[in-house]
Structures are given as C-alpha cells and as structure tokens.
Amino acid sequence: MGRKSIKALRRQEIIAAFYKTAKNEGLHNASIAKIAEAIDVNPSLILHNFKNKDELVLALIDYILSRYQKIYTTQQEGSSIDHLHEVLKNLFSRKWNTLISDDVYYSCYSLIFRNNVIRSKYKELHDSLRVWLEQHLVECIKEGSLQIEDPKRTANLIYTILEGAYYYLCMEKNTAKKDEIMGQYKQHAYQILGLEMQ
User: Fold this and answer.
1) First to last CA, the chain
2) Structural domain of residue 177, as residue ranges?
3) Residues 91, 19 share a domain
4) What is the pLDDT, as a whole number, of residue 73?
5) C-alpha–C-alpha distance, residues 51 and 147, integer Å
6) Residue 57 lies in a domain
7) In the predicted model, is pLDDT for residue 105 greater than 80?
8) Does 79 reside within a domain?
9) What is the arithmetic mean of pLDDT over 22-37?
C-alpha cells in the first residue's frame, strides 16, 4: 500500500515538472530528458511511471482539470447566491491565468484534432466545468435566489461566452483592454442570469 502512494506522489511530481517545462519551453519541446533534468532524475524513472510522452500528456490534461476545479472553490460560509457571485467573479477574472498557462492549455487542446483520447479528455474537462456551474445554479434555484428555467442550458451559454472570451483575449496584449472586454462578457452573463452584477 505504501508503495502505491509513493508512486502516486512521484507521478504527481513528474506531471508538475512536465507542466513547468511545457510552460517554459512549449509543449512540443518538453522532452522526457528535459522533464527529468528539471526534477533531477534519470529519464528511465519517468518512463517507469509513464509509458511515453502521450501518456504524460493525458496525465497533464487531468492535471489541468484538477487545477480548473479550483476556480469553483468558494468560502465555506454564505448562501448559494453568494457562492455563485464568487464563482462568477473567479470565472470572469484573471484567476484562470494563474491556474494554467494559456500556452500549455491551447497546445494540449490542439492535439484533439489528431488524438481521439485527448479529444475525449478535453470534452470531459469542458463538460465537467459546465456541470460544476450548473450545480451552483441549481443550488441557487433551490434556495430561491435565482429564477431560470433551464440551469443546464444557462450554464452551457455562460461557458460558451467564457470560452470565446478567453480564446479571443489570448490575442490581446493590453491588460486594460482585456479587463474591459472581460467586464463586458461578465455583464452579459449576469444579464442571462437576471442578476445585478457585483
């Protein structure tokens, strides 16, 4: 039992090093040798834990999902609507950028066109993000603080806005302009929900 936990910790360390290497050098330049060098181990140790770079990429996508889940972390106290406001604030902020590098995210994303497993992983990631938002909306409806007819459709709509915003904003270098545009998208999300923006 102890060996499995050590192996799991080692895998996490390798994935984190892969992420950092991909962030610094680009996904396509992040070789197993460079990852091994980053954590001062022999490359064979990485191959002992992951069969190849493709398996490492799949683990990296799982890592991205776990990091993105943190966007939904809210304060423990407060009403469901308070939590929803906090989640929306996080979603339409730069908090995403502190969780995962756009470069790493979109480099992995580009692989969906060639790899069905990666496509499935990304779909799972995006579906999970929508479900988490939908759960917040359902809690607010139960609480009586939100009146929408279809929380699933609403969550999908808000995510469509959000995904388009982040894709577009990757090309904008001006921080003030980014904030202005994101504020407009956030306002639109609040309008969809029938809420006053906070």
Assistant:
1) 48
2) 62-193
3) no
4) 77
5) 50
6) no
7) yes
8) yes
9) 95
What CATH number corresponds to the domain at position 100? 1.10.357.10
Helix or strand or coil: residue 173? Answer: coil
Alpha helices in 26-99 (DSSP H): 32-38, 43-49, 53-69, 80-91, 95-99
The encoded tokens of residue 115 equal 């790899």
Number of domains making up the chain:
2
Residues in the chain: 198
CA distance 124 to 65: 9
Q: What is the pLDDT of residue 64?
A: 85
Nearest CA among 148, 124, 136 for reference residue 90: 136
- Whether residues 90 and 112 fall in one domain: yes
How far is 158 from 136, CA to CA, in rounded Å? Answer: 13
In percent, the amount of the chain with pLDDT more than 90 equals 68
Q: Does one domain contain both 73 and 147?
A: yes
The DSSP code for 79 is: -
Query: In the prediction, which pLDDT does 159 show?
Result: 94
Phi/psi region, residue 196 (left: phi>0; alpha: psi -120 to 50; beta: rest), is beta
18 vs 96: which has the higher pLDDT: 18
In terms of domains, do 27 and 87 share one? Answer: no
- 70, 129 in Cβ contact below 8 A? no
Q: Is 143 helix (H, G, I), strand (E, B) or coil?
A: helix
Residue 73 sits in the same domain as residue 148: yes
pTM of the model: 0.82
Q: What is the pLDDT of residue 4?
A: 60
Residue with tokens 């388009």: 164
Q: Is residue 198 part of a domain?
A: no
